[in-house]
Model the fold of this input.
Amino acid sequence: MEKEWQERENELRAALATTETEAALEEIRIRYFGRKGELPRLIASLSTLPPERRREKGREINSFKKWAEAAVEERRAALASTSPQGPPLDVSLPGRPISEGSIHPISRMLRRIVDVFHRLGFALADGPEIETDFYNFDALNTPPDHPARNEQDTFFLKDASLLPPAPSRKGGRLLLRSQTSPVQIRVMEKQRPPIRIVAPGRCYRRDEIDATHSIAFFQVEGLVVDEDLSVRDLKGTLELVFRELLGREIRFRFRPHYFPFTEPSFEIDGLRPGQSKAGEEWLELCGCGMVHPKVLSGAGIDPDRYSGFAFGFGIERLLMIVEEIPDLRLFTENDVRFLRNQSSPV
Done:
């Protein structure tokens, strides 16, 4: 038995020294340490030795077993450090193109809209998405019984810690702004006419989510306040902007409407030649009007000296017209197939 045990040890040392692959090393491990391997068989054969020699040979075999296990793991680590990672490199294969991201369609359209207004001399303005009743409704001449102030239409909040401390805000219930019109009030409070600003941003309303409605959307609103402004200035500005965005051949229709913060108020419809397959189809583009005198005086501007006009429209709605996108939800689903198709400039 002693001779056989020494032979197994020499064989194992030689095998480990010449093993070049993980598969071959695993075969050695099974052959020597498996349930029916050489070492378990040698340990079982201790019973054939005289009692006075069993303990001594048992210690030798256990010592050898510990060494052998360590030697196998050491060889495994050595093979792992020298073996190539993954399949062999085939330098004849063409390179794989790097997939590049693109700007989201809404961001691209927003940049384009802001660029058009910049060329007309408008400054960019911004405001908080968490507002109060005062800025979202009261300062905009919205009556207390207006449907928009109902909890079924607006997201009201309870946690006052979400807003900056007073006096940077005026009182009222907290809410997620339903329009970017509060930015107009904040600008008029801090800046004297002439004022010419455009205010893009995210808004929130309690709507059922479907192909044309969402609880969150992007809106662009504009405000101009100066002496001797009229509906003529409003009409000329918006017609120029939408021709830049939708094409020179677009036709416009101004319909009387009601907004509490403008008087008179209008809805603007547009008709793009060749866009409708079933005859003429007027598309709603924008709400607008002359700033109500109460809104001007509430912001500290003399309505007898100054007048103004304001307007607002949705970015997603404009994109759906320009790109003929059928479903509003595509803008927020992060479907790479949709975003890839929208990667070209608007």
In short: The chain has eleven helices and ten strands. The chain has two domains: 2-80, 105-341. The beta strands are 123-124, 130-132, 156-157, 174-176, 195-204, 216-226, 251-259, 262-271, 283-291, 307-314.
